């Protein structure tokens, strides 16, 4: 969601800067963050005081360039973001991320920088874009390594405590039986338990019929973390036997990225963040992909702020669930799982049979494993 300041005094304070504070009052919450973001950029103009333009003293210059890019994409609508980015590059020459190859190659790869690259890659020249791709690959590789382990664990079958196993692997270690079997070897003087025979639990082997997992990912600017984790999650699911994974990105248009799902770096470099939102159109596209409803899961990753009337969205979700397709609406799919979403629309989807939640990727893997392996 972009910045919404209904109070006219707050808007005037934001426009005029700190000198207007006695008349308009101090800025609050999002308005204060927006003022800091504007000051970070336009505070660089040495002539603005002569022109009587806005002035603020909120210490915004402490922001790093990637943090500023991510912040404006959370606070402002698309047309304002484009103006700010253009002014940063063309008017003030802020090229730490978008134009300066040397700085981009020096900067520490991080998820924060990954988000900034995805927001600004359309401004990069080819040489800088190639360096940015290498950075994206490094950060995505770290995320992929972490999520792949979580997905494998979720789909590796359930532990069967009734049967022992001779396979000595850490994930099957039975702590309770190991302690019980070796309790007579406890040394009270040294307060240590000496284990001669560790015990392990057997796992029931899972065999699954093919399933279709259809990930619909809202690519509006506020969903960038969920876009990243959805791309990596799709790549992890793609590697599982018996799973057909589709990944569709949408705003007011729908783009099927399934051909690139095995390569999350290439997939992320094709995502276009920003724009409006037509969730119903994306769900309609997913309906066309469902061949066997009872063996299909549609995962809708969105903040549920529908661009138009939500009646069509509700109707299509109802049709999916009535046919037997499992529909999971995720207001967030990232490491924090702390969403900002339209709760009214989400509630309407729940009323027609969808599940709605905010999950980490590991939690999504567990949820899918529970439905698919049941």
UniProtKB/TrEMBL annotation:
<dbReference type="InterPro" id="IPR002035">
    <property type="entry name" value="VWF_A"/>
</dbReference>
<dbReference type="InterPro" id="IPR036465">
    <property type="entry name" value="vWFA_dom_sf"/>
</dbReference>
<dbReference type="InterPro" id="IPR008912">
    <property type="entry name" value="Uncharacterised_CoxE"/>
</dbReference>
<protein>
    <submittedName>
        <fullName>VWA domain-containing protein</fullName>
    </submittedName>
</protein>
<dbReference type="Pfam" id="PF05762">
    <property type="entry name" value="VWA_CoxE"/>
</dbReference>
<dbReference type="InterPro" id="IPR050458">
    <property type="entry name" value="LolB"/>
</dbReference>
<feature type="domain" description="VWFA">
    <location>
        <begin position="210"/>
        <end position="369"/>
    </location>
</feature>
């Amino acid at each position: 969601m972009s910045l919404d300041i209904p109070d006219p005094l707050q808007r005037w304070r934001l426009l005029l800067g700190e000198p207007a504070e006695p008349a308009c009052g101090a800025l609050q919450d999002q308005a204060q963050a927006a003022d800091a973001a504007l000051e970070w950029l336009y505070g660089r103009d040495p002539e603005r005081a002569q022109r009587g333009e806005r002035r603020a003293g909120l210490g915004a210059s402490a922001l790093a360039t990637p943090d500023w890019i991510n912040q404006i994409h959370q606070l402002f609508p698309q047309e304002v973001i484009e103006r700010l980015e253009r002014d940063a590059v063309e008017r003030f020459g802020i090229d730490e991320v978008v134009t300066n190859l040397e700085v981009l190659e020096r900067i520490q790869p991080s998820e924060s920088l990954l988000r900034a690259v995805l927001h600004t890659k359309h401004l990069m020249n080819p040489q800088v874009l190639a360096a940015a791709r290498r950075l994206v690959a490094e950060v995505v590789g770290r995320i992929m390594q972490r999520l792949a382990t979580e997905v494998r664990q979720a789909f590796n079958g359930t532990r069967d405590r009734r049967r022992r196993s001779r396979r000595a692997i850490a994930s099957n270690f039975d702590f309770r039986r190991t302690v019980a079997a070796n309790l007579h070897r406890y040394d009270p003087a040294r307060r240590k338990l000496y284990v001669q025979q560790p015990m392990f639990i057997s796992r029931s082997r899972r065999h699954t019929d093919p399933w279709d997992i259809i990930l619909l990912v809202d690519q509006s600017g506020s969903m960038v973390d969920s876009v990243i984790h959805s791309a990596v999650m799709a790549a992890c699911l793609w590697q599982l036997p018996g799973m057909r994974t589709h990944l569709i990105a949408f705003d007011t248009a729908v783009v099927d990225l399934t051909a690139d799902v095995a390569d999350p770096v290439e997939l992320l470099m094709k995502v276009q963040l920003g724009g409006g939102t037509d969730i119903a159109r994306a769900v309609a596209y997913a309906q066309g992909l469902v061949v066997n409803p009872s063996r299909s899961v549609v995962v809708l990753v969105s903040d549920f702020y529908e661009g138009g009337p939500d009646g069509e969205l509700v109707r299509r979700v109802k049709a999916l669930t009535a046919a037997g397709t499992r529909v999971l609406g995720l207001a967030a799919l990232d490491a924090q799982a702390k969403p900002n979403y339209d709760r009214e629309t989400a509630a309407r989807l729940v009323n027609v049979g969808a599940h709605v939640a905010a999950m980490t990727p590991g939690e999504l893997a567990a949820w899918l494993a529970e439905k698919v392996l049941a």
